[in-house]
Amino acid sequence: MPQNRYFIIYKPFGILSQFSGDANTLKELGDFPSDVYPVGRLDKDSEGLLLITNDKSLNHHLLNPRFAHQRTYLAQVEGIPTAEAIAQLENGVDINVDGKMYHTKKAKAQLLNEAPTLPPRNPPIRYRKSVPDSWIELNLIEGKNRQVRKMTAAVGFPTLRLVRYAMENLSIEGFEVGEVREMDRATLLSLLKIV
């Protein structure tokens, strides 16, 4: 029986969260075993933490809504969100999910005083002198399709750059864009707070 392998990736902007296809896929980041796959997804235009494994039970656990795992996102948004907008994000907003309105679960949100320490994005976001931007840290326990982007747009501050920074205590702190690190199961489960 093959042993389980665990890879933590800082997925770059513009890369699809899959191995199939000719260009701009996870294959470009390394030579992975043929039986591994991403746990969850990050959109092509999002970047950050992606876990790749062949451990089906861990995959099932992390994607099961009954086990609420905290995910931390850093979102660079257009404009400077008001205290009211931050409160709306925390209390939940209505977004469209598969053609139906969905009220997001309670979250933690804060406006950051300064930009987080992240590697530069390639290509960089378009800078506009006339429109200020700012960074929000958002902690969610769910992951609907394009949820963070839909949430910030719903409160009037569209997302310009989105980075999934952490899942529980597993983070991409100190990673370079495109970096891949293999991790052992015990360390990974400890960081993910799975006992």
From TrEMBL:
Name of one Pfam family that matches: PseudoU_synth_2
Keyword hit for Isomerase: yes
Lineage: Bacteria, Pseudomonadati, Bacteroidota, Cytophagia, Cytophagales
Source superkingdom: Bacteria
Keywords, in A-Z order: Isomerase
InterPro entries reported for this sequence: PsdUridine_s_RsuA/RluB/E/F_cat, PsdUridine_synth_cat_dom_sf, PsdUridine_synth_RsuA/RluA, PsdUridine_synth_RsuA/RluB/E/F, PsdUridine_synth_RsuA/RluB_CS, RsuA_PseudoU_synthase, TruA/RsuA/RluB/E/F_N
Family: Belongs to the pseudouridine synthase RsuA family.
Residue ranges annotated for the Pseudouridine synthase RsuA/RluA-like domain, each copy included: 6-154
PROSITE patterns assigned: PSI_RSU
SUPFAM superfamilies noted in UniProt: Pseudouridine synthase
Source organism: Belliella baltica (strain DSM 15883 / CIP 108006 / LMG 21964 / BA134)
UniProt-recorded name of the protein: Pseudouridine synthase
Catalytic activity, EC: 5.4.99.-
GO BP annotation list: pseudouridine synthesis; rRNA processing
Molecular-function annotations in GO: catalytic activity, acting on RNA; pseudouridine synthase activity; RNA binding
